[in-house]
């Protein structure tokens, strides 16, 4: 079974009257190694209360960053930036989860459901899957499975998306 959180609160393509999107005004950085509790993320991220219920679903290990914790099937801890990135470069330093059936992902998504994905599938420590979609149309012909020269679940690595 697979479960995904892909939605939009306001989709202009469907005729929704959407407010202007606040954009990052320049370079922005969030360093998870400085966070000690869930409230520390509020300056940069919206912590979705539907998928991160409390501090127990995120743990903070001083210097190592944040861990998102899944307690039961269908849990999907998610962070959403408060501002929009219309173009540019995103770098994430992460260690993928080794849990069978767990998907560690980096998803860039617009209100119109344009999307760029990096997905690490738990149990497959030497590959990452990438894909992109337009207007929410799940066309998997753009997807690729990339072999990694390292174990993505053993240590932290930097992953970058630039467009």
From TrEMBL:
GO terms for cellular component: fungal-type cell wall. GO terms for molecular function: glycosyltransferase activity; hydrolase activity, hydrolyzing O-glycosyl compounds. Signal peptide: none annotated. Pfam families: Glyco_hydro_16. Residues 4-163 form the GH16 domain. Coiled coil: none annotated. One of its GO terms (biological process) is fungal-type cell wall organization. InterPro entries: Beta-glucanase-like (IPR000757), ConA-like_dom_sf (IPR013320), Glycosyl_Hydrlase_16 (IPR050546). PANTHER family: GLYCOSIDASE CRH1-RELATED, GLYCOSYL HYDROLASE-RELATED. This is GH16 domain-containing protein. It comes from Verticillium longisporum.
